[in-house]
Design a protein that fits this description.
mainly alpha; 2 domains; 0% strand; 9 helices; globular
Length: 183
């Protein structure tokens, strides 16, 4: 019951959606039925993908040492860290629901915030599978121009935001909880 009180708003939205879909199905309301079918299709796709993704993220968390991430992506790293972030973000498969947990692991392992922002931005706009799909529909010239414009903007905006947060002395909540002190 305590969890239901803690998450009253999401539970209310989920319950309202389920009720709407059930009533739509009972009343043969086509848009509501289509929404329910789309939700179930997406839900099953995520149920197939997310367990594997979380296992891989867990392996990344365990196998990649904090010192390695700090050296290449941390506070004392060079401008090359942005290239590493863009390359890592470009190889992501699955969108932001995969990139966000990886970004969290990078942050926990002491990557600087600007590099994590570059990684998240790059994983949103320059993933290899998405680019191949884009080339098939819009052509390689369009993709080259989009990369030439967007990649420098990703790096520049991430560096500016990171510098701005550093100037404000903004700190994320403690990423070294008691259970992570040994990493």
């Amino acid at each position: 019951m305590r969890i239901l009180k803690q998450y009253a708003w999401p539970a209310g939205v989920a319950g309202s959606f389920a009720l709407f879909v059930l009533l739509s199905h009972a009343a043969a309301f086509a848009p509501g039925e289509a929404m329910g079918e789309s939700f179930l299709s997406f839900f099953w796709q995520m149920l197939k993908i997310l367990p594997c993704v979380f296992v891989l993220i867990g392996l990344f968390d365990v196998w990649v040492k904090r010192e390695t991430v700090e050296k290449h992506l941390g506070r004392e790293s060079s401008a090359l860290s942005y290239l590493w972030a863009v390359l890592l973000g470009g190889t992501m498969v699955g969108g932001l629901h995969v990139a966000l947990p990886v970004g969290h692991v990078l942050r926990v392992k002491r990557a600087k915030l600007a590099v994590v922002l570059a990684f998240l931005s790059a994983s949103a706009i320059c993933r290899v599978p998405m680019t191949l799909f884009e080339i098939a529909f819009l052509g390689w010239r369009f993709s080259c121009v989009r990369f030439a414009v967007s990649l420098p903007l990703v790096v520049l905006s991430s560096a500016i935001l990171g510098h701005w947060f550093d100037r404000l002395q903004y700190r994320l909540p403690d990423i070294d909880g008691p259970e992570r002190k040994g990493l």
